[in-house]
Amino acid sequence: LTDGPLRGKRILVTSGPTHEPIDPVRYIANRSSGAQGTAIARALAALGAEVVFVTGPADVPAPDGVQVVRVQTAQQMSDAVDAALPADAAVFAAAVADWRMAQASDRKLKKSRDGLPVLEFAENPDILARVAHMTEGRPGLVVGFAAETDDVIENAAAKRARKQCDWIVANDVSPATGIMGGTENAVVLISAEGAETWPRMGKDAVARRLAERIAGALSG
Ligand code: C5P
Fold it and tell me: Which value does ipTM take for this structure?
């Protein structure tokens, strides 16, 4: 099972949402299922890669044949990514929460005692941007994702430049596409060579095609 074009390559994949605690029983989250990141980890392992799969609390089970690191918060995901490096490539498919509580309460907020809560936020670290900007120990190939609702290619290309990643897998998540929460995806791969529009296909097929492209890049 470890045979294939990615044999001997170590690849980090982040996936799923993060949960940011408000108090011991409540949290802020998003609707990421983890389906696309899970499919990518599975496809990379199928090509022989040693995959470290850092996942938030996803709806779908983690794939077999990968090293699974389970986290809850963005900060934990960031720490787990650091612990997983170095890697030959890193794919950041997680839907990391942009914000956490400035100060999570260590006891349950109570209606009777605390009244209406006012939530104060702090910004989470941008894990992809941090890793892509590394001057030492940067993975040779850093891949980010961009979910956009308009001007997909322009916005994703700007994101690629800002975050300094090598590739951006951009998808159009405007409601009319039905992609959010669905089983299909329509993506544009943005690299230094420009924008390549892939036909609409299942998330598993997107994952296999991306894994093959990664294998090509790491061998070339
Ligand atoms: O800026 P935006 O959230 O649209 O960027 C999405 C890309 O950045 C994804 O690849 C996501 O995994 C990554 N990201 C991250 N850490 C964050 C926010 C986004 O790694 N705090």
Answer: 0.98
